[in-house]
Write a structure and sequence with these properties.
alpha/beta, D-Maltodextrin-Binding Protein, domain 2, six-stranded mixed β-sheet, five-stranded mixed β-sheet, 9 helices, 14 strands, Solute-binding_3/MltF_N, signal, Amino acid ABC transporter
Length: 273
């Protein structure tokens, strides 16, 4: 191997190292020292995060506004689609996922979760006029809709043994980039049911009761929380202190009632899988 080739490879390795360093999530000390914090929120996850008349709305956006008032540093926000959001946090592109991320066993391997902001047990939603679906057992063989890369896709794995107990099985599963697309296909009959978190399921059925009906839980109790990269403990502690203070003074529960329709005062302070 020539010295020129070695030099080229060395420079390439150095470039990759510099890229990796630049992408590393900021620590709390770096954030306070002037680097600031970059958070990522989803663009279409009502009632947690959504855009209405060009304005960001939802529980997470109100919590972010409160965090900005109290934080002694700049907080930059990126409103992006769900796809790639968690990967962006785990690789350091964003310092925190300020969105309702469902805590799962797989996700805790690369992310650290703050204190939950809501319950996230998954339910099924069917068409209001579909009399063939009256319970979880009736989902056997039906076509399901889930969000690609989301917790609803993982929820199907929990549904499988439930259906097997009654001799049923999971049918075709169709993955969507966002839930609005899934509900459009549910309304048109392309899929038979949508699996989603309890809050979003209640929201869509309350908004359109003549089109959709709320079914039963298809998973064990679960929770949604903000997330930072694994090992960014000081930042996690800072965010936890903020959220737990909002629990203590009742602010979080009031915002839950406003945006989610109910409060979850029995949520654990921490959740590990």
């Amino acid at each position: 191997m020539t010295s020129h080739t070695l030099l080229r490879r060395g420079l390439a390795a150095l470039a990759l190292l510099m890229i990796g360093t630049a992408a590393q999530a900021a620590t709390l000390d770096e954030i306070k020292a002037g680097k600031g914090m970059t958070v990522a929120t989803e663009d279409s996850y009502k009632p947690f995060e959504f855009i209405e008349d060009g304005k960001p709305m939802g529980l997470d956006h109100e919590l972010l506004a409160l965090l900005r008032k109290e934080a002694p540093f700049e907080i930059r926000q990126q409103i992006i689609p769900w796809t790639g959001l968690l990967a962006g946090v785990s690789t350091g592109k964003y310092d925190m996922a300020l969105t309702a991320v469902v805590i799962t066993g797989d996700r805790v391997k690369s992310l650290s979760f703050a204190s939950p902001i809501a319950e996230a047990t998954h339910y099924y939603v069917a068409r209001a006029d579909d009399d063939s679906i009256k319970s979880v057992a009736d989902l056997s063989g039906k076509t399901a809709a889930v969000q690609s890369g989301g917790a609803s896709a993982l929820a199907i794995k929990e549904l499988e043994p439930i259906l097997e107990k009654t001799g049923g099985k999971v049918g075709k599963v169709v993955e969507y980039t966002s839930f609005p697309e899934a509900y459009q296909d549910l309304a048109s009959g392309r899929v038979d049911y949508v699996v989603n978190g309890v809050v979003n399921s209640v929201s869509i059925t309350n908004d359109a009761p003549t089109r959709f009906k709320l079914g039963q839980a298809v998973t064990a109790p679960s929770y949604a929380a903000w997330a930072v990269a694994k090992g960014n403990d000081a930042l996690l502690d800072y965010v936890n202190a903020f959220l737990l203070a909002k629990r203590k003074d009742g602010t979080l529960y009031a915002l839950q009632k406003k945006w989610l329709g109910k409060s979850f005062e029995d949520m654990p302070e921490t959740v590990t899988k």
